[in-house]
Specification:
289 residues, alpha/beta, Rossmann fold, eight-stranded mixed sheet, 8 strands, binds S-adenosylmethionine, 2-methoxy-6-polyprenyl-1,4-benzoquinol methyltransferase activity, S-adenosyl-L-methionine
């Protein structure tokens, strides 16, 4: 199967992304481990520890002002839970709250159930919000899914809330942005909601073509094995085929860095990104001046 990506329109991409993540929600966590040999956990741990949420440069005992972290496309919670653990436990800073947001209620609902295993203080600092990253003025708290036939994609016409300008200290997005239909719109929204001095941080698949041999093994794995594993384990070849193609189409490190700069962010002098596992994934960061 091939989705013939170059010809899909924005609304077709939206519908495709909606059905893909509704379909994979229940098997998502297990599939991540299988497809990446568990590497995604190492990348996510690294992403969160380099962001060091809740760190106070003044003193580990003096209280800091409250920090608001927004985890966009947060799905089943892998990043949000790590951010909370790092802030509350590693940095002993309970003054950090995390909003986990996604366009898909099926993914968020899995996250909500998983969060029941977190310490009560972390659960209290966590909120679940339905939103499209491309327009954060329209959001609503996660509403439970009542029937199997119910629409799980967030409909902005049902919004009851929104995110304010200059209200967020740290914006994270992991393995989400390549699914967005309008990446510049999402970057503009990230810029709007961040406080001056706030940080945009993105973990995403990227290009690993610096080492041709490694790259050819990686490409074989992606294009042959992943759709097959998707078929065998999740009973869903097409969704995993989509995932592989969306990685292929996502801009290279330099191009994506330039999009981030184009939205007004300052990026660090050494390129503005960090390659992980030879560029299979990369972390990009920008600061709102
Ligand atoms: N961040 C999580 C992680 O690292 O495990 C989940 C990543 S998952 C691969 C991608 C998520 O992006 C899905 O949950 C999907 O619903 C969400 N998504 C896709 N398009 C979106 C959009 N326009 N706005 C918000 N979330 C979106």
């Amino acid at each position: 199967t091939h989705f013939g990506f170059s010809t899909v329109t924005t609304s077709q991409k939206r519908a495709l992304v909606a059905s893909v993540f509704t379909s994979v929600a229940d098997s998502y966590d297990k599939m991540n481990d299988l497809m990446s040999f568990g590497w995604h956990r190492i990348w996510k741990d690294h992403f969160v520890s380099t962001l060091n949420p809740g760190f106070s440069p003044l003193s580990s005992t003096s209280p800091t002002s409250p920090q608001h972290i927004l985890d966009i496309a947060g799905g089943t919670g892998d990043i949000a839970f790590r951010l909370l653990h790092h802030a509350h436990t590693v940095n002993s800073n309970p003054n950090v709250k995390v909003t986990i947001s996604d366009i898909n209620r099926a993914m968020l609902s899995v996250g909500k159930s998983r969060s029941a295993a977190l310490p009560a203080s972390q659960q209290a600092a966590l909120s679940f919000v339905e939103a499209n990253a491309e327009d954060l003025r329209k959001t609503r708290p996660l509403t439970p899914i009542l029937s199997q036939t119910e629409q799980t994609f967030f409909d902005p016409a049902t919004a009851t809330s929104g995110l304010e300008d200059d209200s967020v200290d740290l914006y994270t997005v992991a393995f989400g942005i390549r699914n967005f239909s309008d990446i510049p719109a999402a970057l503009a929204e990230a810029y709007r909601v961040l406080k001056p001095g706030g940080v945009f941080a993105c973990l995403e698949f990227s290009k690993a073509d610096k080492h041709p041999l490694f790259n050819s093994v990686y490409k074989e794995w992606s294009f042959r094995a992943i759709p097959l594993i998707g078929q065998l384990v999740a009973g869903d070849r097409d969704s995993y085929q989509y995932l592989v193609e969306s990685i292929e189409r996502f801009p290279r490190q330099e191009e994506f860095r330039d999009l981030i700069k184009g939205a007004g962010f300052r990026v660090s002098g050494d390129g503005g990104w960090e390659d992980l596992t030879g560029g299979v994934a990369a972390i990009h960061r920008g600061m709102k001046p």
